[in-house]
Each structure stands twice: as C-alpha cells, then as structure tokens.
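Researcher: Here's the sequence for the chain we discussed earlier.
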Amino acid sequence: MAFITLNYYSEALGMQTQVDVLIPQRETEGEIGIESKADGQKYKCLYLLHGCSDDQTIWMRRTSVERYASKYGVAVVMPFAARSYYSDMKYGEKYYQFIAKELPRTIQEFFNISDKREDNYVCGLSMGGYGALKVGLRECDNFCAAAGLSAVTTFEGRYDWRILKNVFGDPVEIPDDDRLDKLALKQAENPNRPKVFIGCGTEDSLYKENLQFRKMLEDLGYDVTYRESSGEHSWNFWDEYIQYVLEWMFG
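Model: Thanks. This is the structure I predict for it:
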C-alpha cells in the first residue's frame, strides 16, 4: 500500500484541508509480511471516519488498518472533520457537503478510484460511526454499505451540548436529515438503502443505544449485520472490529 497525505483546497469548506489516503500497490513481491490483491483496476474505496476527540491520522496511529486493507486490494480514505458530527455546522464549516459529496468526487479525480455505488463504502467510530451511518442512509445512490463502530445513534441525553450547539445551533435542534431514526424511516422502502454493520462493546456507554438502533433497522427490514463482544469505548476494540468490517465489506 502507498500512504499519501493529501493537502488541497476544499470548495465546500472554503479552505485548505488534509486527507490521509491508502492506495493499493501492485508491485509488492519484495515487501516482507504484506499480502496484496491490488490488480490495477479501478479500486473499491472505504471512507474511514474519526471520532470526536481525534483527527484523520488516528486510524493509522492506533490500528493496523493499512495491513488489514492491503489483502483486499481496496483504497482507504481518512478525512479530517473536526468536531462537526459530519454535519453542515450552524457555527462552522459544511463538513457534510465536504465528506459526503465533494470528497468522493475529488478522490476519484486524483486517484484510480471507482465511482460505482457498489464500490464505495463508509465506516467510522463513535462520532464517526454516526457520520458513516448518516452518510450511508442519505447518500444511498453513492454508497452501498455503512458500518458504525460504537456509534453515536441518538442525541437524546448527550453530554457534549457545547459541541452540539456549534453544530446544530442554540438551542440545539436536530434536523430530520441529521437524525438516524428519521433517515432510517425515510429510506426504508428505497431499493438502494445500504447494508449496515453495527459493532459495539458490551461495556461501552453507547451499547444500549446501538442495540435500539439495530432493532429499529431490523424491524424496518434493513440488511443488518450485528456483532458484539466484551469491550469498552477503546482502540483495543476498534482495532479488532475494523478487521471484521473489512471482511464483511470486501471478503
């Protein structure tokens, strides 16, 4: 895999931004301990989203995602989204427009990435899990599957109101297009609704809301893969579970 830090101007954000990108590499016979299925065709792509306390570098720093992704021959795109909840912020930048609409076009322009719906996927953890599920549900024509790990699935009872005020305004009012329950209902009859993976640790503070969202999706007839095990809101859990997500998406 090639690891690229991409700096460029985003029209959606109105400023320079940074995205980390993993691109499959065909010629790796001399590289020890790496398995690659890169074939030089237009690559499938996973957009991998960070949590509220992190940035775009965190997946590479805390997991072995490069090694895990290399055996599937897929690209991985890791953008920076601040504490935006992957939304067009009331008092801030338009991170939803950037992540969900502009970034895929840009990545497909710069790299050998497929623009087909069946080749594009999104995953994230915590705040990024919410972002991934939201993007998957809102952009059904562009993403075929979404995975949320220890995902924020509701804003009821959230403690981080200072952050949410910047995102949604004061008082905090969550638009329907930023509520996962409303989006799930809206897309329930859409033939292009995404396949969904939900993974959460049983000791995670978000465990109960993940169970509730899973049940809602299943009751609505979504294709849901659910996995849980003992674990907290931690990188030990996410390093393990990103491997399950990659196998589910690309295996």
